[in-house]
Amino acid sequence: MNRLLAVGVLLLALVGCQRHDADAPPEAPAADVAVGWQLTDLPEETSITYRDSVDAPGVTLTCTRADKVFSMRAPNPVEIAPIERETATITLGYETFVLAVAQEGEGALLASAPVAPQLLRALTDAKSARLGFRDGFIETGVDTDGVFLAFSKRCEALTAMDPAP
Q1: How many degrees, rounded to 5, is the angle at CA 102 between CA 98 and CA 108?
Q2: Does the global pTM surpass 0.70?
Q3: Cα 142 to Cα 138: distance, rounded to the nearest angstrom
Q4: Torsion 127-39-141-111 (CA) sign
């Protein structure tokens, strides 16, 4: 009889737990990561990020006011750390630039150079970006919303530099 009573109490407790879980509000969905192009504009810097999917690490182009530097952060296409004074190429539209490259965190590269009028002109006309390092490369999707143009205009304002004609 005691066993039967114990089993009954246990069943009631389980039913109570299930009812409590059913009454609980649903969990909030995880914050969505933007896919495609996204512009981030801060007082001292501006950047655009391209992400193929929610799980993708993304490619970010940044322009800063303080040091007037353009940089591109992207996953390392060859997964081998760069050595001192190594360079990468960045292609913006039809223009290619050689930039200094460094390891940026685990699995990422940071290519950077001072902002120049030719670079600003290339940003204005670009619809995508491509980073080439050693035998590998990574490239963004195509900008169809004018994100590159907005980014280049903000970079011009931050650096007080005009694009090359």
Answers
A1: 105
A2: yes
A3: 13
A4: positive
